From TrEMBL:
Keywords annotated in UniProt: Apoplast, Secreted, Signal
Highest rank taxon of the organism: Eukaryota
Lineage of the organism: Eukaryota, Viridiplantae, Streptophyta, Embryophyta, Tracheophyta
Family of this protein: Belongs to the plant dirigent protein family.
Protein known as: Dirigent protein
Length: 195
């Protein structure tokens, strides 16, 4: 009888320990997944990731992050000229301030692809360096109607946590210097993946 009671107590203790490990284990998993600028929700059939970050495009100064690499012979020097092409390596940060936490880089090209208004063709890899998203990237390939308040752009693929990504970005200018073209752009991104 006494032996039976001891056994029962031990089983209860083990169950308690197991539940404790399960509970703390899952909360650890959640906290490692969480970064302030992104959220992953597993819906069962797919994972929906939402992100909010800022893109710093600097054309002026001694260390521009966007440089013009080509322009048609007929074009003037202005950024707006149809046919001009820029190579970019733009920092992505958590907040709008340039000194806020660096979370990745947007690398690639954009060019003026519209003849009569501002329409930039964006061919960019958004690669991340923060949290669980370190070494993951998504590819954006879309026209950016830069004069619109909110620009919607298509996300067509990705690597790492963004393998087989499909999604869209909503971009809104946070700050712009019209004389240089330097800009800080807020991005809200929604992506679905299977992992
Ligand atoms: C991005 O999301 C924030 C917070 O929900 C919102 O305030 C902001 O207007 C959104 N920006 C765009 C471009 O949708």
């Amino acid at each position: 009888m006494e032996l039976h009671d001891t056994k029962q107590t031990m089983v209860q203790l083990m169950v308690t320990i197991f539940l404790f490990i399960l509970a703390t284990g899952s909360s650890w998993a959640q906290s490692t997944d969480d970064v302030s600028w992104a959220k992953r929700v597993d819906t069962g059939s797919q994972v929906v990731t939402t992100m909010q970050f800022y893109f710093h495009d600097t054309l002026s100064g001694r260390n521009p992050s966007a440089v013009k690499v080509a322009q048609p012979q007929s074009s003037t020097n202005s950024l707006g000229g149809f046919g001009s092409l820029l190579m970019v390596d733009d920092p992505l940060t958590e907040g709008p301030n340039k000194n806020s936490k660096l979370i990745g880089h947007a690398r690639g090209m954009y060019g003026q692809a519209a003849q009569n208004d501002l329409g930039l063709i964006m061919v960019l890899n958004y690669g991340f360096t923060d949290g669980v998203y370190k070494d993951s990237s998504f590819s954006l390939l879309s026209l950016n109607p830069a004069m619109q308040t909110v620009r919607e752009m298509a996300i067509v693929g990705g690597t790492g946590l963004f393998r087989l990504a499909r999604g869209y970005a909503l971009a809104r200018t946070y700050w712009i210097d019209p004389s240089t073209g330097d800009a800080i752009v807020g991005y809200n991104v929604t992506i679905t993946t299977y992992i």
